[in-house]
Every structure is written in structure tokens, then in C-alpha cells.
Specification:
homodimer, 424 residues, alpha/beta, Aspartate Aminotransferase, domain 1, Aspartate Aminotransferase, domain 2, 2 domains, eight-stranded mixed sheet, 14% strand
Amino acid sequence: MKTLASLSKAQLLDMEKKLSENYEEFKSRNIKLDMSRGKPSSDQLNLSNSILSAPLDNYMTEQGIDARNYGILDGIDEVKRLFSELLDIPSENMIIGGNSSLNLIYDAMARLYIFGALGSTPWGKLDKVKILCPVPGYDRHFAICEEFGFEMVNIPMKKDGPDMDMVESMAKNDPAVKGIMCVPLYSNPDGTCYSEETVIRLAGMETAAEDFKIFWDNAYGIHHVFKQVSLYNIFDACRRFRTEDRILYFFSTSKITFPGSGIALVAAGDEYIKEIKLHFGRQTIGYDKINQLRVYNYFKNVDGMLEHMAALAKELKPKFSIVLETLNQEFEDTDMLQWTKPLGGYFVSVNTMSHCAKETVRLAKEAGLSLTSAGATYPYGKDPLDQNIRIAPSYPTCDELELAMQLFCICVKLAAVRKVLEYK
Amino acid sequence: MKTLASLSKAQLLDMEKKLSENYEEFKSRNIKLDMSRGKPSSDQLNLSNSILSAPLDNYMTEQGIDARNYGILDGIDEVKRLFSELLDIPSENMIIGGNSSLNLIYDAMARLYIFGALGSTPWGKLDKVKILCPVPGYDRHFAICEEFGFEMVNIPMKKDGPDMDMVESMAKNDPAVKGIMCVPLYSNPDGTCYSEETVIRLAGMETAAEDFKIFWDNAYGIHHVFKQVSLYNIFDACRRFRTEDRILYFFSTSKITFPGSGIALVAAGDEYIKEIKLHFGRQTIGYDKINQLRVYNYFKNVDGMLEHMAALAKELKPKFSIVLETLNQEFEDTDMLQWTKPLGGYFVSVNTMSHCAKETVRLAKEAGLSLTSAGATYPYGKDPLDQNIRIAPSYPTCDELELAMQLFCICVKLAAVRKVLEYK
């Protein structure tokens, strides 16, 4: 590998000049591209359009309940069965929520803050609550922890999940450590898949806090793109250790059908789900059963869901390929960029040279390409090495994405060369 | 008026015997009727069926935003405009929420518990928080206050709203008094409409708590049945006294279109709504814009909503009439029952003789008629005189309702006669 630092100042200056020219040329094109969020493209959304166009002629649920009226707190039976079969979680352990799993996560945190869990001290009454945050991770998880004043502790992400030695040690020794935020399959942004061993260690580890919670945000649980990675069932793992009540499992169809018009679920162990249902019973009379029926009618069963996901993967695959191939062409055998090669999910995570991420994002922005803010993938927006950038390839068309990646690569290189020049 | 107590024991025993016979005859019919909740009837729901059957061909909002995708935290412009015109609240002061105004109320309480408001001490950090509760009132409001451990203080409901002398005195002198729960038009269960004077006094009163909140649950804001009562605009009133930030205004279409599949809103003063939006931005990526579009397409404008409400009133009017006429026939000039004569809303509230409500409800239940639990209309389920019962006439058909009211009257009388006999 040829490192930038090994080049002479003259060579670097020459590179900088050429890159600057390329960059200025891009800027003059006045392009406007958005890769800032994990948004589905119009083509991807079109796959689900029959949810919009299909009239809902039958509004009676399988149980003969009029979905138009009040009633049913925890979701209609057919949807619970669908998710139960898909995720291998008993129906009794889940509540079908509204349109947002993020909202369910927020509410779960709020409940722990106000009420504790199963008789424990409310987290809001404690001097300090720490949440383990595998990094890089999902900015909206961090925003929720910050909202409640919980201290986030960075846990390095390894190939098969968070650094479990560190997680176990902190959970065991510090009673203030109350939970861990996990996106266990095709994690945001790394695309990391938690191994069976990781899941079992999370389930079995000793925790100083009696009410330790694993926030299991399985947002990409069926978002296989290149390969179908299977996730070890955390309910099975926890049953083995009788720790089911540390699970807070979240899932939604937001990234499957329509963001904002999907259905979300929360699931937990036998005892804790009962307590959650009591609180839900005061928080709402029930979620949108009509939407539950509409989404159910579209999928009908697990096979229907998986077929849909295969079509969705077909949309996403060429986009991931553009990103990965471009990065490979431009950065193989250089020290300017490292990146993940996810098998599914929604993101590619890259690491620039140290202290180059912010500048790369700034350059891109100035030339018309919006990226996720540098730092966003770390708690408090503080990436200690200022190197991680999340690439979200789903929203642009393939043509736009090719253009965006060309520009992105120029920005990465320009930031890197300029950074190395500072020390020459 | 002929009081029961003025009758001789023999007369009472004779009455009791005849009523018991009638009651047993009813029981033998094995009827099963439900007047327990304010649920719309199937006929009422049918009015909105085109929301279910109409395909949503255009998923672009007025602003040209794809409603299928992420984005827009506070609701699509067309829905905000609709509610803004309907309720005379500026669009900027509202957030269109999910399917449940109750959920918005719960979340509003949770936010105050956790964060306080505009820099005030979080309510959860205070030794005591008191909420003024006009009684009789809505059981689910009380359940929320109880959930957060807020002490509920009964405020007698008068003809034009809560006893404002008492409200003003408590709010002024006790800094622990943090709010008041209001259903200002056609209140649940009394059907009371707050007068202009009441609204202005609520807006202008001195409060010891800097973060006093008026929970303004305008659930029946357009549910005119016999007459259109207009509600003085609390925003106008508060602007006069610069107290807009004490408003927490809630509205929803749950009792207009479909319970559970409607859209809800929360509105507040200029400063406080900004703070609420910040919290919403961490709680969710956005609410269901597809459903917002569907509901909007059905109504199109305020006239469309009012036309719909006129049709709905046509459904409700004969039901209210059955209840009111039956009560009049059976109880005029007796001391066995008092009742309200609401001009709109969803309920009729009755007061039995003291200590007869529970027994009346029990008798009805035993004969197949479910009523709202006695006591439910009071905080902690404690009706001090055990006399109030909420009648919810919307759900049964007119035939069922006539039958139910016959049975109900027998139960009221039987409980009353037996109670008086205890003292003879």
C-alpha cells in the first residue's frame, strides 16, 4: 500500500492541484444530490403502491372485530401472527404500535425514566445512568439517550458485534450501566451482523443493574441484499439464562413499505411486556388498526413479506455495488479510506484518514452533495478521530449515485491530501 | 315532587316487588347491550367508509413532498390549514400527531414530568404536583394523572364550566397546582360548555406555578347535536393576558371519522410549541402522512368537515332523544334521578340518589347491560356520593337503546327503592 505520507511534498501539491481542478469542475455543474439519510428511493416506494390503491373493503379483523372502531390495545391478531412467524417471537410478547419504532424506543426510555421496570428505581431518580453505545452507531438512538440525560459510553464495534469483553466488564461492574443500544443485523452504519456468540453473551452476561435493558432495534432484520445473514434469536438466548426481561425488541415496516406509514412493534419478556401493556393502556386507546389491516392485506404472510424484500433487495443491490465498486477502484491500496462491505441493510460506513471526515463532508456539501454530518455516527456528535462518514445509497437513482460517488471520492482525496500537506 | 322517602314502607315494598318482577323479566331475556364507552355505532362509522375505499392515487402533498417517504415532523400543510381554519389556531402553533389525542395528552404530561417547560423544574422532581379535575370528568384523563403520581383535586362542575372561584383560588395560592384538565365543549360526561367568561378567567387567572398548563382537550369541539354552541377561542383569550404558553390544546378526528385511525393534534403558544417540536424531533421522525392525506382528501375543507358532522349529528340526535325522553318520562318529578341535557357531544350524565350508582350499574350488568363503571367519572374512581353514571348512547341501535333505557330506568328505581327501604 502506498501511503500518502510517503509522497513528497511536490507530489502531494501536484495531486492537490489536480484534485482541486476536478472538484471545481464538479462544483460548476451545480448538482444537488442527497445521501444524508437512509431514505428509500421512489422506485423502492413504488413497490408498495398497492397499499395505497387497494380499497379496504373488509374492515373486520380475523377475530371479527370492526377495525374502524375502538378496541384492541396490542394489535390485531393477523399482524401479530405475521410478525410472530417472521421474527420467531410469541404473539403474547409483542405489542403492535404506531408508525414508528423510533417512537417506541423513545417511549420505552421515557417509561424507564419515569417508572423503572418491574419495581426497580426509576432511571430519572438515579444520579447517573449510562447506556453502552456501540460505535459508530445510529444518531437517533444517541439523540434519545441525550434527551434523557443518560451518559453514553462508546463501545468499539468489532466484526461480529460490539466488543463484548468491554460490554461484559462494564455491565458487571457498574450498576449505573443500564442498557445497550443495538442494531443487531446490518447495523447502522457499519452493516455489522451480531454473531450467535455475541447474542448469547449479551443474553447471559452478568449485570450489576437488575433492570439492565438490551435495546434490540432490529430495523434491518430482513434487509438482506447480497446474502441472507441470520440473526440468532435473542429470546431463545435469554430464555436459556432466564433473562428475557432485559429484552426490548423493536421492529418496523418503515423501511419495508413506506416510512412513516408502516407499523412498528415492541416485544419484551413475559413479565415486562405485561407491565408495558399496563402503561400502554393509559397512554392510548389503541393504535391504527386500519393501517395494520392495510399492511397485512398487502403482505398476507411471511412469504409475501420475503418476496417483497427480494424485490427491494433488487433495487438496493446495484446501488450498494456502485458504492462499493467505486470505493474499491479509487481507494484500494491507499490509506485514504477504509470502508465496510455490508451484506444488507441500508448503509456503507467509511473511515477517512484521521481528522478528515468533517472536511470531506464540508467539501461535498459545497459542491452540492449532502452527506450525513460527520460525527453523527458517534454519541454527542463527537467522532474522536473525525474519520467516520455514513453513506446512504438508497435514495438517489443509480446515475445520480455514480455522480455522487465520483464527487465523494474527490472530496475524500482532497481532504486527505490537504491534511497530509499540513505536516509536510 | 314526590320524594321516595315520603312513601310508606308498604308503598315502597310494593314498588320494590313490582320493579323486581320487571327486572327479573328483563334478566330472563338474556339481552347483551353495551353502553360502557363512547363508541360510535356502525352506521356512524359507515359515513366515513369512503376513506377506506378511495384509492390514494396522488401521494404528493400540496408542497410537492412525497407523503410516502420520510420527512415533515409537524404535519402536512393541507391538514394544518384545515385544522387551523376549523379551530382558529395558527398553523405554526400546532403539530399534527398520530392517531390519538389521548396519546398526545399522555406524552405532554410525560414531557412535563421529565423536562418541565421553558426552563421550569421537571414535575417529576417536585415533591407534589396537583392537577385540578372538574368533576364529573373523563376517566382516561384521570388515569394519566394517576399514572404520573399527580394528585388530582376535584373541582365541582357548574353550568358554564368548572367552579372558577375555586380554580382561581387554588391556582393562585398553591404553587403545587400545575394544571387543569378540561373538555371545554360538551364535556365528558356532563355535556357542559365552558362560557366565554370561564375561558377568559382560565386565561387570565394568576397562577403560583410559572408553568401552569391548561389541558384543553377539545374532543367534542364540532360535535353539535341539538344546537351549535360556540366555544370562546382560548388562544385569543390567552393572547390578551400574554399567557399563551399555558395552553396545551388537543383535538382529533377519532370521534369524527374512525376511532384509532383518525389524526390528532396538539397546539400550544409560540414559545412552548417550539420546545415541544424539539422533543418531538427526538421522539419520532414523523407521523403518518399517508393517513393525513387520506383524511384530508375525505374532508377537503372545513365545509366538508361540517357537512360530515351534520350527518353525524343526524345519527346521534335520535339516540340522545331516546335517552332524554325516557328519563323525562320515568323520572320527572321524582327524586330518584337527575340528569344533564347536553346540546352535543357524546354523553348524558346522570346522578342517582346518593349511594345508588354502583348498585344501579351492578343491576344493569347482571341483566346484560354494560354501563361505564360507577365512579369512573371521578378521580381515583371515587365518586364521593356514589351517584354519577355516564350514559353513552352512541353505540347501540335505536331499538337496542330503547330497550337498554327501559332496563336502566328499572335498575335506577330498584336501587333507589331498596336504598330508601334500608332506612325505613
